[in-house]
Design a protein that fits this description.
Elements lengths: L1 H56 L5 H16 L17
């Protein structure tokens, strides 16, 4: 009877290990996908800002337009990339 219980415990332990590996793999895949998405969005925003500044350099500077641009840039920078959970920690690094 002890051997049967030990066998069941080993089987459950193996199942748990497999589930842990599966969850870890899923987390790693999702982490990679989210990092890539953030990187792409960051590159898109950077290109847009560069284009906007290039466009502005070709015309006489309108102070109201420039102030509006800075307000829009500030809004974009203050948006929380993980949703509205109230998490203002910005210590994550983009590789």
């Amino acid at each position: 009877q002890n051997q049967a219980l030990e066998k069941q415990v080993r089987a459950l332990s193996d199942q748990l290990s497999a589930l842990e590996r599966d969850v870890s793999d899923r987390i790693n895949r999702n982490d990679h996908l989210l990092r890539e998405e953030i990187k792409q969005k960051n590159e898109g925003v950077q290109m847009l800002i560069e284009k906007m500044f290039a466009d502005l350099s070709n015309v006489k500077t309108d102070r109201n337009l420039l102030a509006g641009l800075f307000v829009e840039v500030a809004k974009c920078l203050n948006q929380d990339p993980v949703g509205s959970k109230g998490n203002s920690d910005r210590s994550w690094k983009v590789s």
